[in-house]
Amino acid sequence: MQNYAIGTPGKPWGTKEKELWLAAQVVQRSYHDEVVQQLMGIVPTGFKVVQYGSLPYDEERYPLYAIVPECFDSAKPSALVTGGVHGYETSGVQGALKFIRNNLLNYAKDINLVVVPCVSPWGYETINRWNPLAIDPNRSFYTDSPASESSQLMAFIASLEQTFTLHIDLHETTDTDNSEFRPALAARDGTTHDNWNIPDGFYTVANTTNPQLDFQKAVIDAVKVVTHIAPADSDGKIIGAQVVSEGVICYDKKSLYLCGGMTDAMYVTTTEVYPDSKQATPENCNDAQVAAVCASLNFIK
């Protein structure tokens, strides 16, 4: 792997290197136009948009929004859908918005649904995995987290006082994971990260301690109607993790401080769409995310 443009190989970044990295980031799309305006125009009957916070880098530019029921029904199970924890993973955000627009009402009578379509709006605008502090929000879901994206979402979910049965977190695996984000991570931490094979297709990440493989299979079976499922590599792995069933690997979500470990939900999955596939289009990727969300909700109805 080539050395990253910032920093000295083998030496973790200090303040200077992080400032150089931040100075190199540029806004490439509009959170307001592509997310906020879209969200405000698609709120279904029986739901409301709540602002649960804003990012300290620019509070006016980066308000944080969720869609919640106007009234929670204690007789129903509750489910959480999160997108855009990694802002550069576009279909996580746009797939969540498409689900709200076209499918949310189909589940309202059976499930208390909370949807947070874009957890990391600065990352969405700059097409970044990290936040401006060079911190990965998806490794930062813990008490006193330095990532505002993570800490504000955790506080909001806790304030709802709901026991969640399901949490589905919408992500992508992209070619830039190897060309940009893993090299940057290695440079920031002063370590060496080998390239891994980017899987061509959709897969899910279950929770090591409670994988619920029947649930994962239901998601995979629904998505394979929309797009292709990632095969295992020659070692029987996907992104370095053992494949435990078709298109499914496991991570210990709590110990890694992932968004998917934020709740104690019985059914948890992280989707991974591959937008750089020759077989994929942006709409196809969004549809795969929607199919995964719907299959998850159908499983707990």
UniProtKB/TrEMBL annotation:
One of its GO terms (biological process) is proteolysis. Transmembrane segments: none annotated. It comes from the Bacteria. GO terms for molecular function: hydrolase activity, acting on ester bonds; metallocarboxypeptidase activity; zinc ion binding. Pfam families: AstE_AspA_cat. Its cofactor is Zn(2+). The keyword tRNA-binding does not apply. Keywords: Hydrolase, Metal-binding, Zinc. Residues 29-301 form the Peptidase M14 domain. The keyword Membrane does not apply. Belongs to the peptidase M14 family. This is Peptidase. It comes from Alteromonas australica.
